[in-house]
Structure formats: structure tokens, C-alpha cells
Amino acid sequence: MNDLTIRPTPDQHLERLSLQAQSLRGELEAFARAHGAPVPQQILTSLTQMSHLLSGIQSEVAKSEKQRGNLLALAEISRMVNSSLDLQTVLREVMDTIIRLTGADRGFLMLKDEAGELQTRVARNWERASLKPQEIHVSRTVVEWVAAHAMPILTTNALDDPRFSAQESVVAYSLRSILCVPLKAKDRMIGVLYADSRLREDLFNEEDRTLLTLFAHQAAVAIENARLFNALAEAYDQTLDALVAALDARDRETEGHSRRVVRFAMLIAAQLAYPDSDIDDLQRGALLHDIGKIGIPDAILRKPGVLDDDEWEIMHKHPEFGRHILAGIPFLNRPIDVIYAHQERYDGTGYPQGLAGNAIPIGARIFAVADAFDAMTSDRPYRKAQPLSVARQTVSDNSGTQFDPEVVQAFLAIPDDVLMAEMQNSRRESRGGSGL
After folding, report:
1. Which of 82, 188, 383, 402 is found 20 to 30 A from 98 (Cα to Cα)?
2. Which three-class secondary structure state does DSSP give residue 86?
3. Cis-peptide, bond into residue 361, ω within 30° of zero
């Protein structure tokens, strides 16, 4: 028997034995009729009892196997759902899991807003596709009852269920099987999980309700963890915004520059299909790239004329100062790569490490183009902003020397009107003091 052979499950073995017992009885009776030798009734009765017993055991084993499979799936799904702290990722995983566990046609995850009203956050179908707004129809009666009583509801045919048959939503959308369970975190109702079918009756059973209720406990914890993490991330970003505002107050010449560079870096990253998981680090690194200038004396930072060699040597230390300022903050461990390497050049002639090519973190290579473009297209006390076409050509001319050629190509692929719109929006937002 090779590894590709499909091995029967325990319940399939038992079903086969039950059928064999029935077959044996039939063969004995046929043999007896053919030879005129009756089979003792006790043997026939025993074979019948054996067949029924095996069939009963097979049914119980199948049920146990299903329960075991559900528990294994629940454990694996709970691990998967709790492996992410991105709220939208968690919500999608929870919703897809509900549909997979119950076989529902559609599923909805609703969370309470600040006013305590339930709002649909995710709506998915059996194909794992998000539903369009016009497709989001639920039984508000069921949802509101579950939210009010913090108890699950199961109906196998809502159209005939006296609790819901008169409800407008049930009739209008021909809802049949409905399963809705509460989402509770620390005994506090935060929302509901809702699944239904408009085609099938008796789709859900008590086992589905129990399983989904167990899963809802895990899902609520995962959702609350993601919410807390998102709130913490927002607080961090507000702190970063305050740091940048403090730097802008010291260096009026480049006020708003960091925020504008973030916008251009995002456009380039989109062209490069930059991983979503790394976008926040690129944003924060670009926003804080000049934070080390806090350590540069005002006499140098605000000097109206050209810096001498000694002053340039001090100015060149600002990436190192930035790394020291932010070192030890776990939240900023990865953005530090952009901050420390943002003055490196693709040909290795930059500072402070003299990195070249792909040794420079990709975030810093993206930043370098965005930074140079904003500098060229912004007014300075000593010159006016350069036209978009000139700035584009300058970036192209420095491909392979100052800039990564792949990043340059991504930048040049951005349409002029998109860049112009972003330039106007970013400057408008910078004047308003908005952050990420």
C-alpha cells in the first residue's frame, strides 16, 4: 500500500462491518432455502443485532470524529485569528471562519460604535468575497435581540418560525436558516456574529450554535486585542507627529518636508507593490528621518550661509543622533533602518556607513527618491521650487549613482497629474498640521 492510498476512517470500517453482517444473514438464509436446512433463528437474530449495534457504534464514532475535527479546527482557527494584531485582518479571518465552520451562504460581523449602535464591519459570502453595500441585508430583529440579551439564536426556518416569520427583513430577503451569537469581551457586549442562508432550511443545528459560541469567545478576545493595539499605534503616531512638529519649529526652512516625503514615498511604494506589513514602518521612518537634527546646534541648523567643513561634519551626524534618540523603543526598531540609512547613496558615497546597492534598506532607497523630489519641488530661501519636469529628469539622471534604478523606474511610472495632486494635497495638509 503506497502513501497515496486513501485509508478508511474508523466509522467507515464500522459501516462496512455492519453491511457485512447484514450480507452474511442474507447469504445464510439463501443457502438454507436452497438446501432445505433452516438456519437456527438464534444465529439470524444475533447477526441482525450485531448489524444494528455496529451501525449505532458507527453513528456515534462519526459524531465523535466530527466533534474532534471541529475542536481541532477551532484550535487552529483560534491560533490563526490571534496571530494578527491588524484589526481588519482579524475581522476578515473571523468572518471567513464562521462561514467555513457552519457552511453558511453569508456571514456578517457587527461591532458596537461609540454610541452603542451595531455597525457592520465585515460582510462576506461563501466564496470569501466581500459583499457590496446593497447586498448587506440581515434580520435586525435577530441581531438586536442577541445584542440586548447576550444570548445566541438559532432558527432553522425563519419564514415559519413564529418568533421571526412576521418580521419585514425575514420576509423581504427570504431568510431561512439563521445563526447569531454574541461577541463578549470581559462580560461586555462588543458585537455579534451572524450567519444565514436564504436557500437552505435546517442548515444549522445545536452543535453549530455551541461551536460558534465557543469560537465567538476567542474572536472577541482577538478583536479587543487588535483594537487596543490599534489605539496604541494611534497614540504612538500622535507622539511622532508631536516630535516632527517640534523639529519643524526649529527648522522653518524645511517645515512640512517630512510629511510631504511620506506622501511621495507611499506613491513609490505602491508602484513597487511594497508589502502592506512594512508600510507603517516606511511611513514612520520617512516621517522621523530628520529627528536627529534635534541634536544639531541652532548655530549650524539655522545658519543662513554655507556650512564649513567642521559644521558639515557635525551635520552629517544627524542620522546617528536619530538612531540614538529612538533606540530602545521597540515600536520604532524597524523604522530606525530608514532613519539611520536615509543619507546613504546607491553608489556607496553616502553617509554615515557608506552602504551601497541592496545593502541599503529598501525603505531608505524609496525614501531617498521621495526626499530629493520634495526638496527640488519646494521653495527655499536661496532658490525657487523647480518645475515637475526638471525634478523628474534630475531623478532619472541620478539613477544608479544617488538612487536605486528600480526605485527610480517606479517613481517615473507615477503619472504627472497624480504627483501634482499629491504635491498640492500634502502642502495643504502640512499647513494644517495634520500627520499620518
Report:
1. 188
2. coil
3. no
Query: Which residues does 24 contact at the CB level (< 8 Å), separation at least 6?
Result: 47
**Active-site residue, 293 included:** yes
Tell me: the pLDDT tens digits for 21-64?
A: 566 666 666 766 666 666 667 666 766 666 666 566 656 656 66
Residue whose C-alpha cell is 506622501? 263
Residue 161 main-chain phi, psi, to 5 deg: -75, 120
The domain segmentation of the chain, as residue ranges, is 10-79, 84-223, 251-432
pLDDT tens digit sequence for 381-396? 667 888 999 999 999 9
Q: What is the per-residue pLDDT for 366?
A: 96
Q: Which residue among the candidates 132, 293, 317, 384 is catalytic per the annotation? A: 293
CATH topology match: 84-223 vs 251-432: no
Contacts 24+ apart (CB under 8 A), 275-279: 278/334, 278/363
Domain spanning 251-432: which CATH class is it, in words? mainly alpha
The residue-averaged pLDDT of 422-432 equals 66
**Domain 84-223 class, CATH top level:** alpha beta
Q: Is 384 helix (H, G, I), strand (E, B) or coil?
A: coil
> Among candidates 201, 209, 155, which has minimal Cα distance to 181?
209
pTM (2 decimals)? Answer: 0.57
HSE on the CB side for 352, CA within 13 Å? 17
